[in-house]
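Allow me, if you will, to draw on your knowledge of protein folds for a short while. I have a record of one protein: its chain in single-letter code and its fold written as discrete structure tokens. Could you please explain, in whatever detail you think fit, how the structure tokens follow from the sequence? The record follows directly beneath this note:
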Amino acid sequence: MASYFVGSALDLPCDVPNHVSYIQSWIKVLKSDTREIFRAAADASRIADWILSHHPAHVGGCDVAGDDEQSSAPTEALAA
């Protein structure tokens, strides 16, 4: 999902390889936990926001998640 969010923000074409198996895997997950799609989408959104925060055209200007809070944890990890 994160790659789709980033691609969408950058106007890149979307081509999910093996999309049938990808959808089937989500069907299996959703049968056991119907809320997982929301957790996965939230995580993907935070990941996309972090990736885009390092893209020159989007620094300070793109917020995929819809909130202004961005995690500094990955940046701290890179600095260590």
Notes: The chain has one domain: 2-79. Residues 66-73 have pLDDT under 50 and may be disordered. The radius of gyration is 15 Å.
